[in-house]
Amino acid sequence: MWVGAVAEKGGLPPMFLGTHAPKIDDKGRVILPAKFRDPLAEGLILTKGQERCIVVWTKQSFDDYASRLRQAPQTNERTRSFSRVFFSSAYSDQPDKQGRVTLPASLRDYAQIDRDVVVVGADTRIEIWNAGAWQDYLASHEQGFSEIDGEVVPQM
């Protein structure tokens, strides 16, 4: 079940929520959930994500992330390495009238995506996973989900 994209007040980026399971067509396109489309209508950026998924960013969220990355010292080898892989894997696209986005072959190969995918709302970004890899990820991480709440979410 997916909830959609919730536009936040005060100019904050959209919040993408929920899970959807479309199929990749023969041209390497995926149909994004209808409620995800408005924030992406003016364009989006696709990149490699951690855990071998594809990340879909709004242009604004990508620009914000890139700006923060530019603040990291370029004299640091890890920063340069991350930047090279991150930016060299980035593709710009715009959904068509049916909400389809083309997933470049290099990103499909990276995420081991063939036909069955899971589109996950992940706050200010969307993740596209190989369906089997997503199920494996959930199986190995859901148990710890309740255990790490206090570590991950700052307490008030």
Q: Termini separation (Å)?
A: 30 Å
Instruction: Walk across the major sheet and give the strand order.
Output: 3-9-10-6-5-7
Q: Tell me how many strands there are.
A: 10
Name of the level-1 CATH class: Alpha Beta
Order of helices and strands: EEEEHEEHHEEHEEHH
What summary fits the major beta sheet? 6 strands, antiparallel
Write up what this structure looks like.
The chain is globular, with a radius of gyration of 16 Å. It has helices at residues 34-37, 59-70, 77-88, 105-110, 131-145, 149-152, and strands spanning 4-6, 15-17, 19-20, 29-31, 44-48, 54-58, 91-93, 100-102, 117-122, 125-130. 34% of the residues lie in helices and 25% in strands. Strand 5 and strand 6 (54-58) form a beta hairpin. The protein has a 6-stranded antiparallel β-sheet. The two termini are 30 Å apart.
Q: Could you name the key traits of this structure?
A:
156 residues, alpha+beta, Chemotaxis protein chec, 10 strands
Structure at a glance:
Helices cover 34% and strands 25% of the residues. The protein has 156 residues and is an alpha+beta fold.
Give a topology summary:
Blueprint: E1 4-6, E2 15-17, E3 19-20, E4 29-31, H1 34-37, E5 44-48, E6 54-58, H2 59-70, H3 77-88, E7 91-93, E8 100-102, H4 105-110, E9 117-122, E10 125-130, H5 131-145, H6 149-152
Antiparallel strand pairs: 1-2, 3-9, 4-8, 5-6, 5-7, 6-10, 9-10
